[in-house]
Amino acid sequence: MITLEKMKIRSRIFWLILICLLLSSMSIFQVSRIAVQKIVEDFMYNDVKLNQENTESSLDFLVNQVNMLSVRLLTHNGIYNILDDEGLGISEKKARLNDLLNQMMIDRSIVGDIVILAGDAAFNYESNEVIDLPDRSYLSEIEQSKTPVWGKTKKDAEGNAYILLGRRFQNFFTGQNRGYLVIYIKERAIHNLLKHMVMQDRGYSFLVTGGSYILSHPYPGKVGTTIFDTDVFRMDGEPRSKRPTTTVSLP
Q1: How far apart are CA 197 and CA 203, in angstroms?
Q2: Cα torsion at 176, 141, 205, 45 (round to 10°)?
Q3: How many CB atoms lie within 10 A of CB 135?
Q4: How far apart are CA 231 and CA 69, in angstroms?
Q5: Mean pLDDT for the chain overall
Q6: How far is the CA of 2 from the CAs of 5, 10, 12, 14, 77, in angstroms?
Q7: What are the angstrom distances between the C-alpha of 246 and each of 108, 194, 222?
Q8: By C-alpha distance, which of 111, 66, 118 is closest to 97?
Q9: Helix, strand, coil abundance in the chain, percent, nearest 5
């Protein structure tokens, strides 16, 4: 009888120890899984955040390049001499302006076209490209602004998108208002900066304005459209600070 009772006690102790080991193992596994998941999420968040900061710097550099090009154009006496030459016809002025611009070593990977609207004449750098000229409403915005004005996207016959950055075309030396200067920035140049922000198998990044107007997107067909569903900027109801996102403000 004593032996049986001892066996029962030993059995109870064995099962108790086994259950404790199983519970502790499960607890350790769960804690480890949560800890590893948190480390991975933090690593991915920090990686995206760092890439976003680098991308913002690259975008600032790109915009500065375009602004510096505008300054070079506004301070180039040769442009004013061609426009003021009454002995030249419109077609000859266009040809000479193109020759002059070709000598300025413009970065063609960024700049798609340059449009100078002087009076009733429109001169564009890429005369072979079929890109719509700036709208009257956009030109009115430029007229009322003392700083460069961002416009909506334009597309050529092949569906390539361009982002407009325009300003008043004022003679740098005399201050005379000659019309408008609009630079067409290639949307793909911006996309090439954004696409490295997020690992491809984890999602993608795109550029929107404060009004949810898409300026650059991995899918070219979405460029120039507006996002009406603002919930796209939230994920599972989580605060924005918990998920890496892309927000870039253009000056």
Answers
A1: 10
A2: 90
A3: 13
A4: 38
A5: 78
A6: 5, 12, 15, 18, 114
A7: 26, 9, 17
A8: 118
A9: 50, 20, 30
Q: What is the pLDDT of residues 72-97, one digit of tens each?
A: 999 888 888 888 888 888 888 888 88
The pTM of this model reads 0.72
**Helix or strand holding residue 124 (H, E):** strand 121-124
Q: CA dist 191 to 94, 149, 184, 218, Å? A: 31, 21, 15, 7
Residue 164 class from Cβ within 10 Å (0-12 exposed, 13-18 middle, 19+ buried)? Answer: buried
Cα–chain center distance at 27: 45
What is d(CA 124, CA 165) in angstroms, rounded to the nearest whole number?
Answer: 14
Token pair 């949560």 in the structure block, residue: 34
Q: How far apart are CA 97 and CA 18, in angstroms?
A: 87
Three-state SS for 141-176 is HHHHCCCCEEEEEEECCCCCEEEEEEEEEECCCCCC
Cα–chain-centroid distance for residue 176? 34
Write down the residue that tokens 């077609």 correspond to. 91
Amino acid at residue number 47: D
